[in-house]
Design goal:
With 643 residues, the chain is α+β, with helices and mostly antiparallel strands. Helix content is 34%, strand content 21%. The protein is elongated.
Length: 643
């Protein structure tokens, strides 16, 4: 079966939370290969038309959806499954609707309170001032249903139909007379989603005369709300859309008594996520639990609960799983935030309650495939639902895989479960008539080049990993090659990074700085595909990479390309592989519309064979830059017109 692993495009110099998706893709790709499938890695970006044609040409039997961000933000995470819905490809994980609702943290909280599930009280700064709101302050208490007792039932409040329509709230199950919100203050601390004009607060340099007054009013409203929670209460400032603890650190937790810290936390969130991109939540001091859920033939399986233990945290350090704990290796938080699956008998009733709440979330939000529910349990033993993660991290060291291991499931078992669930929930384009579905699904896969060129700056990079038929081949230090057995491909897979680094170093031509540059180009190309501007052609013999080129368009020119690297494994040199690699590269450039290719090399004696190679291949000397690389080490430039 042909499986596309659709993952977030990762820019160069990305932060660890963004790079982690490549770890997941490689890990799951290996499992899919063991299960006998051909695997395709496809980065997903905002270039939807290019991604759409890539999927249509590849015609995968299944798409493994690992998209966590689009263009670096979680706001567009639902676009990937939405595109797959329109195109009719079966995919793993939750539906578009479930991904959207659970990714918007405040919208999730509205659903939870409407269904009588406990979630910490929250404050939406962009609505506290009443600007951009489509219902008056008097309606705010009626518009937001709330459960005052965690886990209680039949206590949901139903808003009037007029208010519910204005606030875009879902219908509340059951029927009850509208009543004021238990945590509502006169300032209207609870309200709907974004309503401020995007530029109301402006950037950090904005000095509009009314801005400080608005900000002071907002801080006053927030303080009133926090006082209503209790004299010792803390709050935490959180991004509305982002996951993976992005934007969460110790300074995000604030006390109502420290106005300066509160101001700093709010201002920082506003500048990073925008005026409608964050909210404030009542901080639940206590224990933290993660419950992972996995589809099964009998419905959903709640995997063994995990508790996050904060070892050695002083009273001055908040017990939270922040960005440092997840992504800063060697930090205090990373070393002292530990996952535990061991519990005492006294915890059994609490764990049963958490499992029950997790299953209710699965059913209410229509989750599929896999998910994770994050809880805090206060010191009175009351559970509160923090977030619902519809596509939790599946890296080998992540909590989901740790919970699966506790349940006796390995990664292959998990992947097979997700595949089975995806086909049970197979989706078709809404616009496709029933009588055309069979023809739609049986269309032949067209050649990728027909609609998508790997060198097109709009196109995502496509990489293909062979399935289970691959066989290891062992070589001596000098291997004779039959040119007829050579094959070429113009994409990278994660395992290529180590191979390319090895054969580049073994040539002995390049210093450590140059080797670092080669590594960086390969990582950029693998992470972001065509958007990186770097493209590769690899030569393989019996499944082994024996040479490669790296090239790209010269910005600001018409049809001009540069060949950055051409490298052949020393064990395979002198057999025409370099010549054929260059020909394949020139053909690729020509198909992309390239008209001329430039190459640069050194004047050192070591590079004399390289210069002869280019001349024999039809390249002409066009320029010399004296002492460019160093004293008596000139840069020589060759060029070739492509027919």
């Amino acid at each position: 079966m042909r499986v596309v692993i659709l993952h977030s495009a990762v820019p160069s110099k990305a932060l660890p939370d963004e790079e982690d998706v490549l770890v997941q893709a490689g890990f799951l790709g290996e499992a899919l290969t063991r299960l006998g499938h051909d695997v395709i890695f496809l980065p997903f970006s905002s270039h939807l038309e290019a991604g759409r044609w890539a999927l249509r040409d590849l015609r995968p039997d299944l798409v493994f959806n690992l998209v966590e961000t689009v263009e670096g933000t979680g706001r567009l995470i639902h676009v990937a499954p939405g595109l797959l819905d329109v195109e009719g490809f079966p995919y793993t994980g939750c539906s578009t609707e479930a991904v959207f609702v659970t990714s918007h943290k405040v919208l999730t909280k509205y659903w939870l309170t409407a269904y009588g599930l406990p979630t910490p009280a929250w404050f939406e700064p962009n609505k506290a001032l009443g600007l951009g709101n489509d219902c008056d302050q008097g309606d705010l208490g009626k518009a937001v249903p709330f459960v005052s007792t965690p886990g209680s039932s039949n206590t949901s409040l139903e808003a009037s139909s007029k208010t519910r329509k204005a606030k875009h709230l879902m219908p509340v199950p059951g029927s009850a007379e509208a009543a004021p919100h238990p945590y509502k203050t006169e300032t209207g601390c609870f309200s709907g989603s974004a309503g401020f004009p995007p530029d109301l607060w402006g950037g950090e340099t904005s000095q509009l005369p009314w801005e400080n007054a608005l900000w002071d009013k907002l801080l006053g409203s927030l303080q009133d709300w926090m006082r209503s929670l209790g004299t010792e209460s803390f709050a935490i400032v959180k991004p509305l859309w982002e996951d993976a603890s992005v934007g969460i650190d110790q300074e995000a937790v604030v006390s109502l008594h420290d106005l300066k810290t509160l101001d700093r936390a709010m201002t920082r969130a506003r500048h990073r996520f925008g005026p409608d991109g964050f909210f404030v939540e009542h901080f639940i001091d206590g224990r933290e639990f993660n419950l992972s859920l996995l589809s099964s033939p009998d419905g959903v399986q709640v995997l063994p609960p995990a508790e996050m233990c904060f070892v050695g945290f002083s009273s001055q350090k908040h017990r939270i799983v922040d960005y440092e704990a997840k992504w800063v290796a060697g930090s205090f938080a990373e070393r002292n935030t530990m996952r535990s699956f061991s519990f005492s008998e006294e915890d059994a009733p609490l764990l049963d309650r958490l499992c029950g709440l997790a299953q209710r979330c699965w059913n209410i939000f229509g989750l599929r495939g896999y998910a994770r529910i994050d809880f805090r349990v206060d010191w009175q033993g009351r559970p509160w639902i923090l977030e619902i993660n519809a596509n939790p991290c599946l890296a080998p060291d992540a909590g989901f895989m740790a919970a699966a291991d506790q349940a006796g499931l390995n990664v292959d078992d998990v992947v097979q479960r997700l595949i089975d669930d995806a086909f049970k929930a197979r989706r078709f384009p809404r616009s496709l008539p029933e009588d055309k579905k069979r023809r739609y699904l049986s269309r032949k896969r067209g050649p990728l080049a027909r609609h998508l060129c790997a060198w097109d700056d709009r196109a995502p990079r496509v990489t293909i990993v062979p399935g289970h038929d691959s066989r290891p081949v062992f070589f001596s230090s000098r291997t004779e090659v039959d040119e007829a057995d050579l094959s070429f491909r113009n994409y990278l897979v994660p395992s290529d990074l180590e191979t390319l680094d090895r054969i580049t170093a073994q040539t002995g031509f390049f210093n450590e700085e140059e080797l670092s540059v080669a590594r960086d180009l390969a990582r950029q190309s693998l992470g972001t595909g065509a958007e990186s501007g770097y493209f590769f052609v690899l030569s393989e013999y019996a499944g082994r990479v024996v040479g490669y080129t790296c090239y790209g368009p010269i910005l600001g020119t018409a049809g001009r390309y540069e060949l950055y690297w051409i490298v052949v494994d020393p064990a395979f040199q002198g057999q025409g592989i370099g010549r054929k690699l260059l020909q394949e590269t020139e053909s690729a450039i020509g198909r992309a519309g390239g008209q001329r290719v430039y190459v640069e090399t050194s004047s050192r004696d070591t590079y004399e064979p390289t210069r002869r190679f280019y001349v024999r291949a039809g390249y002409a000397f066009v320029a010399l830059h004296p002492d460019f690389y160093g004293p008596e080490d000139h840069k020589i430039i060759y060029a070739k017109e492509l027919s």
